[in-house]
Design brief:
single chain; 153 residues; Glutaredoxin; two-stranded antiparallel sheet; 5 helices; Thiol-disulfide isomerase or thioredoxin; oxidoreductase activity; signal
Length: 153
């Protein structure tokens, strides 16, 4: 009987996992918009984790702003994610304070997107137009390193 229960449980887990993989991940930004991850297929997606107490994170914001403006009309999107998971009103305060021009996600998508544990900041994840994680950049980035990461992937 015990092995039957284990088999049923394993089958249910497999079905649940398959359904989760097929389900679309919904990203919510700090402006209240919902972005379906599947709508980003065909685009490079960069997700940058940062924190207001992290000097390197703050130092890279002007470069990320420059990258965002440079690629506004390209199939490239850039999202900020607050590492501390602050409430949206506190995130908005920091976004204004540090002049973050690119969209910020209200909640952490790491689990839903399979990015793994975020153990430090800054870190930028590069997802190719097919929706696959192709690179993880640790430390501060600039426009050149971001452009190079996309070209190499």
């Amino acid at each position: 009987m015990n092995s039957k229960i284990k088999s049923i449980f394993a089958a249910l887990m497999l079905m649940t996992t398959a359904a989760m993989c097929q389900a679309d991940v919904l990203l919510k930004d700090t402006q209240g918009n919902t972005i379906s991850f599947s709508s980003l297929k065909g685009k490079w997606v960069l997700i940058n984790y940062w924190a207001g107490w992290c000097k390197t994170c703050i130092d890279e914001i002007p470069e990320l702003n420059h990258f965002y403006r440079k690629h506004e009309n390209d199939p490239v999107v850039l999202f900020a994610v607050n590492y501390d998971g602050l409430p949206v009103h506190k995130q908005k305060k920091l976004i204004r304070k540090f002049n973050i021009l690119y969209p910020s996600l209200a909640t952490d998508p790491a689990l839903a997107l399979g990015l793994g544990d975020i153990i430090g900041v800054p870190v930028t994840f590069i997802i190719n137009p097919q929706g696959e994680l192709v690179n993880t950049l640790y430390g501060g980035q600039d426009i050149k390193t971001l452009d190079t990461a996309i070209k190499k992937a």
